[in-house]
């Protein structure tokens, strides 16, 4: 193993085995699966959003990303991910920035799944003889230096020696959001589209799905996406959406609603008793757009009617734009709004809702939320963060709706405070004094969760799990040391320290 040298600058893995193209994480009260085709919460056609863990009950069948847009000549391009047993529009791997050709999927057919414990262990043990880094850390796609003209940085990592190369043998680590995370890189041009039957946009998609809260009663999964236009076309009328097929135990007794003020689409039980799932306390599950206002929400079924499953690329585009297959928009019968499906509030029984309506028949419910239209030039990108929120803390099925709305407020506030910054943590200078020092140094930086002194051989001379306020250095050999620190938000700090005789 190499040793750390010089100064650093930031830019449930399996030991010794390649990570599969699908995986599972069970943290924070939910066991959820995903794959590297843009589909979450499904595994070989089976639901994979088990909440609570070990209950055997699933709240979501599948969730996937949709993209559609027109170039400046009016040509339509569409990519959609729906179910892992249906067609495929997204493929693993990046896109060459010169040729616009996607990578060979055989070399990128992975998920990278890791957690904060594995990363901390790598930091502590990487230099130990016989240590073998977990696969996802050893093979994290942080930097690329091959013959293709891929983006040189493909995944966020901590670049201790500032050379723009990911070097886990030198103790460098992936940068993940939260406690446990799965990372993937997708494109929509490698193969023929068998889901939408559309032409790919040339979008490179970076995704990180993660859990940030340790409270098992909180039940939240976050998804962070970055869509980069790797084509030579400027897209206008570009829409990006997330499709979700809700289950909530028994799948055919549900309603759906939108809270546009909270950017939230959610499904809830239509009856007080869920006979095949959550029994006398039916749950609520929703998807909340965090980084962008929810532009449209729409629900459709699996039939052949005007509100049925899309059959052509144009119909996928119409749904993303908030219009049905017949190109008619949603129409709220109580107001003039035509952007959000069932935009009333079942909790207060106000506005346009299915709850209490004699015209709404309970059944299986799906929804598509979208943002746009946007204009994205070559090399431009759009970021979209989404939270999946599960709640069953109320006293009955409608009280759970009320609790889910309040929880959405808490999730948005948490995201605003902790997750709204760019995906890559920032590096700042660490203020210590005196410097040079002989006996003791002091630092005033607050909220630190790790402080290390590294000698010029790369060995850790001192290590702390918080800011100790002062550090005795009289017991260290005179010389130059690197002081490295990290705060709770993932930002990294560094400075050079000189210890005198």
Category from helices, strands and their pairing: mainly beta
Distance between the termini: 31 Å
Strand portion, in percent? 25-35%
Q: What's the total count of β strands?
A: 31
In total, the number of domains comes to 2
Low-pLDDT runs of 5+ residues are 1-16
Query: Mean pLDDT, nearest integer?
Result: 90
**Approximate helicity band:** under 10%
Sheet with most strands: 9 strands, antiparallel
Helix tally? 4
Bulk shape: globular
- Rg over CA atoms, rounded to whole Å, is 25 Å
Characterise this structure.
With 501 residues, the protein is mainly beta. The chain folds into two domains: 9-418, no CATH class; 427-499, Immunoglobulin-like (Sandwich). The chain contains four helices and 31 strands. Strands 10, 11, 14, 15, 16, 18, 19, 20 and 23 form a nine-stranded antiparallel sheet that branches. It is globular. The model is unreliable at 1-16 (pLDDT under 50).
């Amino acid at each position: 193993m190499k040793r750390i040298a010089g100064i650093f600058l930031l830019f449930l893995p399996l030991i010794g085995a390649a990570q599969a193209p699908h995986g599972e994480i069970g943290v924070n009260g939910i066991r959820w699966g995903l794959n590297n085709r843009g589909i979450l919460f499904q595994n070989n056609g089976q639901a994979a959003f088990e909440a609570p863990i070990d209950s055997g009950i699933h709240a979501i069948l599948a969730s996937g990303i949709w993209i559609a847009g027109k170039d400046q000549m009016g040509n339509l391009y569409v990519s959609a991910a729906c179910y892992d047993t249906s067609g495929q529009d997204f493929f693993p791997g990046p896109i060459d920035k010169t040729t616009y050709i996607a990578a060979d999927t055989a070399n990128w057919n992975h998920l990278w799944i890791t957690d904060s414990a594995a990363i901390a262990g790598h930091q502590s043990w990487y230099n130990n003889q016989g240590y073998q880094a977990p696969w996802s850390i050893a093979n994290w796609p942080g930097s690329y230096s091959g013959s293709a003209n891929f983006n040189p940085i493909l995944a966020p990592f901590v670049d201790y020696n500032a050379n723009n190369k990911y070097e886990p043998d030198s103790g460098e680590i992936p940068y993940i959001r939260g406690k446990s995370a799965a990372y993937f890189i997708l494109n929509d041009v490698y193969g023929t589209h068998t889901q939408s039957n559309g032409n790919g946009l040339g979008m490179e998609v970076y995704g990180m799905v993660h859990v940030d809260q340790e409270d098992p009663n909180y039940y939240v999964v976050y998804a962070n996406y970055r869509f980069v236009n790797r084509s030579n076309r400027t897209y206008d009328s570009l829409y990006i959406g997330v499709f979700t097929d809700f289950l909530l135990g028994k799948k055919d007794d549900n309603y759906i609603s939108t809270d546009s003020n909270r950017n939230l689409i959610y499904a809830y039980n239509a009856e007080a008793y869920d006979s095949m799932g959550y029994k006398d306390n039916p749950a609520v599950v929703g998807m909340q757009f965090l980084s962008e206002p929810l532009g449209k929400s729409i629900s459709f079924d699996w039939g052949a009617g005007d509100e049925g499953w899309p059959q052509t690329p144009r119909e996928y585009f119409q749904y993303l734009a908030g219009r049905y297959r017949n190109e008619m928009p949603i129409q709220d019968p109580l107001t003039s709004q035509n952007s959000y499906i069932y935009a009333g509030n079942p909790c207060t029984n106000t506005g346009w809702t299915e709850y209490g309506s004699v015209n709404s028949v309970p059944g299986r419910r799906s929804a598509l939320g979208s943002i746009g239209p946007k204009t994205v030039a070559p090399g431009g990108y759009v970021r979209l963060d989404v939270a999946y929120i599960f709640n069953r803390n109320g006293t009955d099925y409608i009280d759970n709706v009320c609790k889910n709305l309040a929880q959405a407020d808490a999730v948005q506030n948490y995201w605003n405070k902790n997750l709204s910054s760019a995906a890559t943590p920032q590096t700042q200078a660490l203020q210590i004094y005196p410097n040079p020092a002989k006996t003791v140094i002091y630092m005033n930086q607050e909220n630190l969760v790790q402080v290390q002194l590294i000698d010029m051989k790369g060995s850790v001379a001192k290590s702390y799990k918080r800011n100790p306020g002062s550090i005795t250095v009289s017991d260290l050999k005179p010389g130059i040391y690197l002081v490295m620190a990290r705060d709770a938000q993932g930002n990294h700090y560094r400075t050079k320290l000189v210890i005198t005789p």
